Amino acid sequence: MNAVPAGQREASRALGLSRGAELRFVVLPQAVRTIVPPLAGVAILLFQGTSLAFAIAVPELLSRAYNAATITYQFTATLTVAARCTRRSPCSPSPCSGCPVRAAGPGGPSPRPGPLPIRPTGDPHDPDVQVPRGGRRAAARRVRVRVRRSRSRWRGSVPANCEPAHGGVQTLSGKTLSVSVYVSPPATLSENNTFSGIEPEIVTELAKAECLAVRMRPVAGAALIAGLQAGRADVGIGAIYHTPERAETLKLSTPLYQDGMALLSPSTLDGDIGALRGKSVGVVQGTSWIADLRKVLGPDAVHVYQATDGMITDLRNGRVDAAVLNSSEASHRAKQSPGLKVAQVKPDPGVAASRTRSDVVLAIRRDATGLAKAFDDDIRGLLAKGTIGSILTKYGIDPRLVSGAG
Length: 406
Hints:
Blueprint: H1 6-14, H2 19-48, H3 51-55, H4 58-72, H5 75-87, H6 136-151, E1 176-181, E2 189-191, E3 194-196, H7 198-209, E4 213-218, H8 221-229, E5 235-241, H9 244-249, E6 251-252, E7 257-259, E8 261-265, E9 281-284, H10 290-297, E10 302-305, H11 308-316, E11 322-326, H12 327-336, E12 341-344, E13 358-364, H13 369-385, H14 387-394, H15 401-405
Parallel strand pairs: 1-4, 1-5, 9-10, 9-11
Antiparallel strand pairs: 2-3, 5-13, 6-13, 7-13, 8-11, 8-12
Helix pairs in contact: 1-2, 2-6, 4-5, 7-13
């Protein structure tokens, strides 16, 4: 409930709502949106941690399913097979030889229909949506509609006479660009339900060029790719590296900038991956080096986390000896935690991401051809004008990293 802005309570009181009506119609509906995702994650972890779940090897099965999905990026198909295996008695936990596997089509799972759009009256850019008046419930509904519309807009409204740089750009929600954000500082930052960082600023510039409003929503790393495949967002951001596997299932934009691979640890490291043998290493689900690190260090040495914050907490508490992150986030995390040290990873023949800097891109829905082409052209324009270089400098990143990316 503390996540609901104080202005919502003040608006409710200004409309004459009682304390109970304020909680029921304004505060709780918005609080539930914040509560449900982490609560669902805790429920899943609680189920996996029960004695019954351990008896049927659910943690091992889901761990292997996540690893396979990280490589193929077919999260829906892989986790569906894992779920069926836990319910069918002929299936062995690993491998799942008794379950029939039905691969997803080339376009991925069918998009799930979203909620019906709210159609306001009057000026489509007016945030004060007119709703028929009818007592306290109608007043509370007007407040919620204003909140939904305000979250769907970027700084400054879209001018009525705005001319897009390219025609034929289609999004899931008309003139609103839906963006899934995996928080990976400084590429993406989140504070008080507001997103900032390198990539949100770049996406905002792209949206302005195409006369689009922007709606950003936070997602877990593993859910970002799956959400794009399922058609729940137009674009995904969060220090996403260009890989051949991702290029097969999504459209990847022209590279924005380049980033490397780094180690984060309380002790001093020289960046040699081979020196980590016999140690426990943390990685974040969805990163491109998980499979290679498991081969080099052994599957039991690599611990996969759903979010960076949990990994950093375990690193501080000594549950893991080192963490592998992209270079920009490792430097950012080290500044936040003075006891942690950063070392750039040395090239290792067994880890492809360590041998060269990776291109950071926007992940775009595979069927959004017009949007991808428009953004590619707009990105090249931002690179040529030095806009992306200036944004990198603003967040403490060497602007020369755009030279190889362009």
